[in-house]
Design a protein that fits this description.
CATH superfamily of the largest domain: Response regulator
Radius of gyration: 18 Å
Distance between the termini: 36 Å
Helix content: 25-40%
CATH class of the largest domain: Alpha Beta
CATH architecture of the largest domain: 3-Layer(aba) Sandwich
Number of domains: 2
Mean pLDDT: 84
Order of helices and strands: EHEHEHEHEHEEEEEHEEEEEH
Largest sheet: 5 strands, parallel
Strand order of the largest sheet: 2-1-3-4-5
Length: 226
């Protein structure tokens, strides 16, 4: 997996570089001390995961993440625990509290899922296997109304049931990116084939489900709609 580090403290940056090298499954493409420097890099490079500090000069890690429309998977690295809840609201993969051990680093990386992996999801053109707790539940993609992010899990809402998954919404967005699914809100991924109508900033799916359109996703959605 290709990764970058955004960390303004050089000792912490050196530790991350060492851990990445020792991990073996990661390839460090670049390291930055300023989030603004990374923005241009991300427009031209395919990155799977970012190790992102929160307290950065000019632009914080959280504000930087909010500027990215389709961000790579994110692992926060910070000395401040009070941002943990906001981090999970942003669907980060993990939250490493400094100083962290190599073992804890490995645990975080193991949560990162590449879109082409079959470790937790087996996909055919019509079906998915969702890992939910200790079970793998097979569903038809066409039965999904929408997928909702809820703190540290995602909820699949089908026509006749709901299924919880521990994968973040970003993972499912990448997994289903070549299908009929579109991200319309920071918390919602919808099956566009289920759209009955769009009114103002609301999407009606089926007969009883109403999904809000997020401000950051509004322009792209209406371009798709037209």
């Amino acid at each position: 997996m290709n990764c970058i580090v955004i960390e303004d403290q050089l000792p912490a940056q050196r530790i991350l570089k060492k851990y990445i090298q020792d991990m073996g499954t990661l390839t460090l493409q670049a390291a930055f001390t300023d989030a603004l420097e990374a923005i241009q890099f991300l427009t031209t490079q395919d990155i799977d995961v970012i190790f992102l500090d929160i307290h950065l000069p000019k632009l914080s890690g959280i504000d930087f993440l909010k500027t990215l429309k389709n961000p790579p998977q994110i692992i926060f690295t910070t000395a401040f625990s009070e941002y943990a809840l906001e981090g999970y609201d942003l669907n980060v993969v993990d939250y490493l509290l400094k100083p962290f051990s190599f073992q804890r680093f490995v645990q975080a990386v193991q949560k990162v899922k590449q879109t082409n992996t079959s470790e937790n999801v087996a996909q055919t053109p019509a079906e998915l296997f969702i890992k939910s707790g200790y079970e793998h539940i097979k569903i038809k993609i066409t039965d999904i109304l929408h997928i909702k992010s809820d703190t540290d899990y995602t909820e699949f809402v089908l026509e006749n049931k709901k299924i919880l998954s521990t994968e973040p919404l970003r993972y499912w967005e990448q997994t289903l990116k070549n299908s009929a699914f579109v991200r319309v809100h920071k918390s919602y991924l919808i099956n566009t084939s289920k759209i009955e109508k769009v009114s103002s900033n609301q999407i009606y799916l089926g007969t009883a489900t109403i999904i809000p359109i997020g401000r950051a996703y509004k322009d792209d959605f209406f371009k798709w709609l037209s």
